[in-house]
Write a structure and sequence with these properties.
The complex is a heterodimer of chains A (147) and B (112). Chain A has three helices and seven strands; from the N terminus they run E-H-H-E-E-E-E-E-E-H. With 147 residues, chain A is α+β, with helices and mostly antiparallel strands. In chain A, strand 3 and strand 4 form a beta hairpin. The longest helix of chain A is centred in the last third of the chain and has 10 residues. Chain A starts with 11 loop residues before the first strand and ends in a 7-residue tail after the last helix. Chain B has 112 residues and is an alpha+beta fold. A three-stranded antiparallel sheet of chain B has the order 1-3-2. In chain B, helix 1 packs antiparallel against helix 4 and helix 1 crosses helix 5. The chains are: A alpha+beta (147), B alpha+beta (112). Chains A and B meet through strand 1, helix 1, strand 7 and helix 3 of A and helix 1, helix 2 and helix 5 of B.
């Protein structure tokens, strides 16, 4: 999980191994019929709409209604490389004008798939540190956070 | 629901991305310092230290006041808490999303 010299450091990274092929995991993100069952939705959502134009430069919008409020997530695909790599921007314009970048990578792991998701917020030129560095720093300054 | 993603959060992460500035914040967490004291542990000029101080100030992480001719710096911890909340929110958000993905993949396999 070390940052490579030319890539921006990560803000958030989560990895999960699934008992499924990389193709199945990748398609779970890009097949609207599958994505609608888990992506940007919840078990108690009232309605849900998933529009995915899965190609480089294509737009995606997922609208999810919870307790009468529509939550809209949207973005654009930057890289579509089935089944290994999917990169898209992600934002929720209701809450913030800022968009992040999400990188999903799938690596075969035995009969399954190790999927890693990275969410990056800042453009690369603003970013030198590592998430581990920040976490250590947050722990070190825990005393000061009482302010 | 979603933590505030403001341009200031950008400034906070930019401020935190530099190891010298992180060290300055650690030092300030022990108490106020003047700019010379912040510069001292690093082989850097006063001017270079002042640049770092300005970045921290722009991020809302540091406040300066004048005491005679000295400029005293104090840590402002609130933006750190906001950044930490942002990180924690998205960590939890994606973990829950992946839980849901895992459940869907299991269902898909059980109904061929």
């Amino acid at each position: 999980m070390s940052a490579q010299p030319d890539t921006p450091a990560n803000f958030i990274e989560v990895s999960r191994r699934f008992d499924a092929t990389c193709e199945a995991v990748f398609d779970a993100w890009t097949d609207p019929a599958v994505a609608a069952r888990w992506l940007f939705t919840s078990p108690t959502s009232e309605t849900h709409a998933t529009e995915l134009d899965v190609r480089v430069g294509g737009a995606w919008t997922i609208s999810d209604r919870r307790e009468g409020v529509d939550y809209v997530a949207t973005g654009q695909y930057l890289e579509v490389d089935r089944p290994r790599r999917l990169v898209f921007t992600f934002g929720m314009p209701q809450f913030s004008p800022l968009f992040g970048r999400v990188v999903v990578t799938c690596e075969p792991d035995g009969a399954g798939c190790l999927m890693t998701l990275r969410q990056e917020e800042l453009p690369p030129e603003h970013h030198e540190g590592t998430i581990e560095g920040w976490r250590l720093m947050f722990e070190g300054l825990a005393v000061a956070l009482g302010g | 629901m979603v933590p505030q993603e403001t341009p200031r959060l950008d400034a906070v992460f930019h401020a935190l991305a530099d190891p010298t500035r992180r060290a300055m914040l650690r030092s300030l967490s022990d108490g106020e310092r003047n700019v010379g004291e912040l510069a001292a542990p690093h082989a850097m000029s006063f001017a270079a230290a002042a640049k770092h101080v300005r970045v921290l100030e722009d991020a809302g992480l540091l406040k300066r006041r004048a005491e005679g001719r000295a400029r005293i710096c104090a840590l402002q911890a609130r933006p750190l808490a906001e950044a930490e909340r942002w990180l924690a929110f998205y960590q939890r958000f994606w973990t829950e999303q992946l839980d849901a993905l895992e459940a869907v993949l299991k269902e898909t396999q059980e109904t061929p």
